[in-house]
């Protein structure tokens, strides 16, 4: 297995230009998003901070009228508890709050980012909120700018945001807030609207890093075949992390500003034929879980309860399990640690998980991922 990981990392390195000599690399990012809707069952005090460097509060949204963060008292209390709890942990971690999310109003972000005045109102409110509740930074999860015009708005937003953050830090003599963004797995879109690309130059200049969402390549929108929804490689299509990360590097975003996303959940299908069960096998619908989605905890329970057969797929660097016509694809310890080693071998900044509470009770995946990132490599 060690040789396989070495081979995978070597292949990836050879795909790009020669690696630069190591000077003083940026501190690694071992991050995870904390879904606030699980606050009662999974409070921030339950986080094992020894395994992470940054934790994201997910999510906040500005008002669709004022463009400011007009938060109810319950949310304000939760934000205070979040930062206080994680700051008191040993070791402490840095905290950011993420704005948006997959189900948020993309049109609202476009309205905010469309002119300098509304951008400034939003930016000032975000900085004030971060300072008020003790956050170390901010994250924008705009899914996704839908055309070239909105991509320009995104560029304008992060450029103005960075200038305001730097100005605020200078005026207050505080460390500048971190600024990151969750982005599509590839730097360009060739589906979901007109062809368009993220503004790589502005991203490189204005953001501390990007969280590249290297997952959701397959799912309930295509029930004709199973798929490795976070495939590192795909021999048949461009739906792979290898392709996506290569596109970001080719666009000019520094490797030191790229954080690779790893899912703590699986996607399921119902097989057409229980005897044909590989990645890409014919399917007739979604399988177990909530609309074909199971957290890693639920995958483990499914495997144990059904005594499912577990297979590691070398081609895609993923795992899947099946029993009768039920099929689940996910990342296990092997695929996760291989991806982490792959990220570090290629000088990426780090990795992040969606989502924190989906790991097993003993932090199985997170622990192995943290150990796989060798701190003294350089």
UniProtKB/TrEMBL annotation:
This is GH18 domain-containing protein. Belongs to the glycosyl hydrolase 18 family. Chitinase class V subfamily. InterPro entries: Chitinase_II/V-like_cat, Chitinase_insertion_sf, GH, Glyco_hydro18_cat, Glyco_hydro_18_chit_AS, Glycosyl_Hydrlase_18. It comes from Cucumis sativus (Cucumber). GO terms for cellular component: extracellular region. Residues 1-20 form the signal peptide. Residues 28-376 form the GH18 domain. One of its GO terms (biological process) is chitin catabolic process. GO terms for molecular function: chitin binding; chitinase activity. Keywords: Glycoprotein, Glycosidase, Hydrolase, Signal. It holds the Pfam family Glyco_hydro_18.
């Amino acid at each position: 297995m060690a040789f396989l990981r070495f081979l995978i990392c070597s292949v990836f390195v050879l795909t790009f230009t020669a690696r630069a000599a190591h000077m003083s690399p940026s501190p690694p990012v071992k991050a995870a998003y904390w879904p606030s809707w699980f606050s009662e069952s999974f409070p921030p005090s339950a986080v094992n901070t020894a395994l992470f460097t940054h934790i994201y509060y997910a999510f906040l949204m500005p008002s669709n009228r004022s463009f400011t963060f007009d938060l109810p008292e319950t949310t304000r209390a939760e934000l205070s508890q979040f930062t206080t709890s994680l700051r008191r942990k040993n070791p402490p971690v840095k905290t950011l709050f993420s704005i948006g999310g997959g189900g948020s109003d993309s049109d609202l972000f476009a309205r905010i980012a469309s002119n300098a005045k509304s951008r400034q109102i939003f930016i000032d409110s975000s900085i004030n909120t971060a300072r008020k509740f003790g956050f170390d930074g901010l994250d924008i999860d705009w899914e996704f700018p839908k055309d070239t015009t909105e991509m320009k708005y995104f560029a304008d937003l992060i450029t103005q945001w960075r200038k305001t953050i730097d100005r605020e830090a200078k005026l207050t003599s505080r460390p500048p807030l971190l600024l990151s963004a969750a982005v599509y797995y590839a730097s360009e879109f060739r589906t979901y609207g007109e062809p368009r690309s993220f503004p790589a130059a502005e991203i490189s200049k204005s953001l501390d890093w990007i969280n590249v969402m290297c997952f959701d390549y397959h799912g309930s929108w295509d029930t004709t075949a199973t798929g490795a929804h976070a495939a590192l490689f795909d021999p048949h299509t461009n739906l792979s992390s290898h392709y996506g990360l290569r596109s970001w590097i080719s666009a000019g975003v520094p490797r030191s500003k790229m954080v690779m996303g790893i899912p703590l959940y699986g996607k399921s299908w119902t097989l057409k034929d229980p005897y044909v069960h590989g990645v890409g096998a014919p399917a007739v619908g979604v399988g177990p879980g909530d609309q074909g989605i199971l957290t890693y905890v639920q995958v483990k329970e499914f495997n144990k309860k059904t005594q499912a057969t577990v297979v590691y797929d070398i081609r895609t660097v993923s795992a899947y399990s099946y029993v009768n016509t039920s099929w689940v694809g996910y990342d296990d310890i092997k695929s996760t640690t291989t991806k982490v080693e792959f990220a570090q071998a290629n000088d990426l900044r780090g990795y992040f998980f969606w989502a924190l509470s989906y790991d097993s009770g003993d932090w199985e995946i997170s622990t192995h991922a943290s150990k796989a990132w060798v701190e003294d490599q350089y």
